[in-house]
Amino acid sequence: MKIKIRRNDTVKVIAGKEKGKTGKVRKVLRERNMAIVEGINLVTKHVKATADGPGRKFKKELPIHLSNIALWSDEENSTIKVGMRQETDDQGNRKIVRINKKTQEPIDK
């Protein structure tokens, strides 16, 4: 499966307990088809006290499956369906770019 979400993309959760929230992708876990999104899917972890220090609680972001998130566009104020297209630059080099399927314009500039 071609992963169409990249780090630093703004995404919207489209399914699950966090549905409707938006956030920035911190990391994409390609081998698991998941992504870690800032402020989404937070859980509280407890660390037991040790000789080194006291116990504590902290919030941690868990991964969310890529099928449950969609790329978000602030300009259009909606989600974007992402496609791929092969383009050639001035030197004749080919590269694959992400495009908005609705407008056929490149997402990455």
Describe this structure in words.
The chain has 109 residues and is mainly beta. The protein has one domain: Roll (SH3 type barrels), CATH 2.30.30.30. Helix content is 0%, strand content 48%. It has strands at residues 10-13, 22-29, 34-37, 42-47, 56-61, 64-65, 69-73, 78-80, 82-88, 94-100. The strands form three sheets. A six-stranded antiparallel beta sheet has the order 6-3-2-1-7-8, with no helix packed on it. The model has no long low-confidence stretch (mean pLDDT 93).
Q: Summarize the biggest pleated sheet.
A: 6 strands, antiparallel
Label the CATH architecture: Roll
Distance between the termini: 24 Å
- Oligomer state of the chains in this structure: single chain
What topology emerges from the helices and strands here?
Blueprint: E1 10-13, E2 22-29, E3 34-37, E4 42-47, E5 56-61, E6 64-65, E7 69-73, E8 78-80, E9 82-88, E10 94-100
Antiparallel strand pairs: 1-2, 1-7, 2-3, 3-6, 4-5, 7-8, 9-10
Features:
mainly beta; single chain; 48% strand; 109 residues
Provide a compact summary of the structure.
The protein has 109 residues and is mainly β. The protein has strands spanning 10-13, 22-29, 34-37, 42-47, 56-61, 64-65, 69-73, 78-80, 82-88, 94-100.
